[in-house]
Amino acid sequence: MKKRGQTQQFDKASFKASVKKHLVTTYAQNIETASDKHWYLAVGKALAEISTGNLLETEKRIANAQTRSVNYFSLEFLIGRLTGNNLISLGLYEQISEAVTELGFQLTDLLEQERDPALGNGGLGRLAACFMDSLAAQEFPSVGYGLHYQYGLFQQSFLNGHQIEFPDAWREAEGYPWEVQRPELNQFVGLYGDVSSYTDDEGQQHRRWNPAVTLQGIAWDLPIIGYQNQSVFPLRLWECRAPVPFNLAKFNDGDYVGAQQTQIAAGNVTKILYPNDNHDQGKVLRLTQQYFHCACSIADIICRHLKNGHEINSLSKFEAIQLNDTHPTIAIPELMRVLLDDHQLSWDDAWAIVSKIFAYTNHTLLPEALETWSEALIGELLPRHLEIIFEINHRLMVQVEAKWPGNNEIKRKLSIIAEGQSRMVRMANLCVASTYAVNGVAALHSELVKRDLFPEFDELFPGRLQNVTNGITPRRWLKYCNPQLSALISEKIGTEWPAHLEQLEAIAQFATNTQFQQRFAEIKKQNKQRFADWVAENLDIELDTNAIFDVQIKRLHEYKRQHLNLLHILSLYHRLLNDPTFDMHPRVFIFAAKAAPGYALAKDIIYAINKVADKVNNDPRLNGKLKVVFVPDYRVSLAEIIIPAADVSEQISTAGKEASGTGNMKLALNGALTIGTMDGANVEIREEVGDDNIFIFGLLVDDVEKLKSEGYNPHTYYEQDSLLKASIDLLDNNEFDATDCAAFSNIRHNLLEGGDPYLVLADFADYVNAHNCIDAEYRDQTQWVKKTILNTALVGKFSSDRSIRDYVNNIWHLTALPK
Ligand code: 26V
User: Coiled-coil region(s) at which residues (predicted)?
Assistant: First the structure.
């Protein structure tokens, strides 16, 4: 048998010819006059040809291996730009760079032409992308299933400090070079209508759904290229179209009045990614998206299973489905429906399959993010699914009754249906009742899932609730985004580390080596310079790379407490202007964050930071000690420049609120020191890097609960801490705001009269204290650099390869593809 090589065979001349062919025939451009954009597109297409061949090849190998696959169901995959990363995975970065130079271009310039596919909001979507990368790197049979949104997460810009949103047409006019349509995989999906009963020839009773509307799912595959192993797995994204002319007659018949009432137009279903992060709104179009995603994906899995010659009864032997949060939960009743109604299995046989296929990941404890859907809405859109949900709930209640006889309180709590004015379906309860594994995303979070969210489920289904700590792919988040540091590491410990991140531990031995420290520090400086150049060019702000670059980059949310960071900045401003004895090392505070368009306070916080930045950056009294930069339109490609440039990583959520965080891992890996609360994965980062190499502050989860139950009063802190008082008062005296926008007073009001729901005031003093330690320790550069080296060296645990191995061993039970 031919053995597959580690890296792709490459012939420079034919690659160059392929690029030129695509430039002319695919993009209709003249070689002499084509723009950088078109050259990038042609290079992308030429590369995609290689990966599509490998994708088909890998599909065959999986079918032949007769082994279990995982299907990662997610409404979001925040993949970021693919070209540069794929070059690294193909092992062709140097060769393509050379070929592109010979064509008269710089590879790095062409890579800058790529728009980020922003098909996700934040952590949950980016995690899905890292997981796909790690599945491919370790050759675990897998398919990612998502939606082919026409518009990704909105583009953000600032107008006089206010966030404004623009549509994100990531595919542009020319289409995205890496995607390929798979027409033979297209699917049809029903909606609305009614359910009827019939008796088959053997006298068996069955139910049948008669949908009133039919949608068509168009399959698009993006290649997930395994790191230097030649395996390629699909990220399959479904686009919704009206099935023309198939159902047009029905459409005109008025056969589906229900559909017109709800104004579903097929073209709208996958038009836009919902921009909410951690907030559920219950919109019918969102439920339609969720069902469309699940119906197409379940149908695709079953087609593949049958095509590979397997019986329907063996489905759970060959397929596992991971639900990325509750967003794809409707896949559970959908698979039941298909097994019961289409394949005519008995309930028990269908349930035996379903309950061995699905596993569910919980990503948040915030009550406003826990999805519920109105029973009436589900009944209208998906009448058969509602029947099935009722039956699952009935059987759950029987189990609860057996365990806690007569205990109606527990029944009410565990029921999938929440009683009340309008009855709601609780998607998380449906998940816990129907899956064989439920996991949180960091050790602390998983404990809180057991202790606070589902304690009775933990008793009812012992062992079902587990932990898998999140991770990040070291290929994108070190090798690709920080090439100089990567080269230094490889020089010291060899080149295997991107696939075995625990090997980084070996650089700890150089943490006190003066020469190594100097080189490490020099690379950080150059990365700071690269970012400073970007800021100078794009934002017209000059930054001093001797300053501490202090970074908070993540979605804007009260629980993440960007306003705590802001208050600290105000305290420094106050002290610099009012306390002649006060001195500090120069600092640049760097923010990047999008606010959900409907989240008013989040938008106020963005505005306030922008206004403070305007003032601070231009105030000569501050002697350049303080700079504030709010980088607009945060996205993966910006993270790739900011993260390598960071000295300090802000991970300052109220304890118990951030499920894990993954930016914390990326920043530590790139040698930033964390200032953070005992929340999410910060707890485990501290365990790995040691107390001396991280700045922990603030209330613990138990302190937060205690304080709240005793009756937290932010005014007490305000009155007793003069620095806090001075900082908060700066919010309300027109110091920063020329226009009379209410943003500043809204923030102040939220903190004082609004009860300060995320305990910003309670944590302020300790936070300031931790920052004072950072200031002092940064001045001792030898010690500081040692700490940053140790951060890089000791966070190997947070490779998403390890997360995936945890899922594989404890939940999915897969074996890697044979070579
Ligand atoms: C909820 C909703 C509600 C409906 C509209 C769209 C939408 C989108 C996202 C969400 C929930 C997002 C939950 C989430 O992103 N959690 C984050 O997951 C990360 C990966 O596990 C984790 O690192 C973060 O701490 C956690 O906040």
Answer: none
Q: Ligand 1 centroid vs 445 CA: distance in angstroms?
A: 13
What does the DSSP 8-state code read for residue 149? -
The token pair that represents 387 in the structure block = 């029947």
Q: How far apart are CA 438 and CA 322, in angstroms?
A: 10
pTM listed for this prediction: 0.97
Cβ partners under 8 Å of residue 519, min gap 6: 488
What is the per-residue pLDDT for 709? 97
Q: Evaluate whether 460 touches 467 at the Cβ level (below 8 Å).
A: no
Ligand 1 site-directed mutation target among 281, 325, 470, 679, most atoms within 8 Å of CB: 325
CB atoms near residue 226 (< 10 Å):
24
Q: What is the mean predicted confidence (pLDDT) over 789-812?
A: 98
Contact 665, 608 (CB under 8 A): no
* DSSP-assigned letter for residue 116: P
* pLDDT per position as a tens digit, 675-720: 999 999 999 999 999 999 999 999 999 999 999 999 999 999 999 9
pLDDT score at 264: 57
Helix (H) or strand (E) holding 696: strand 695-696
Q: What's 167's DSSP letter?
A: -
- CATH for 474-798, options being 3.40.50.2000, 3.50.50.60, 2.60.120.810, 3.30.360.10: 3.40.50.2000
Nearest CA to ligand 1 atom 6: 276
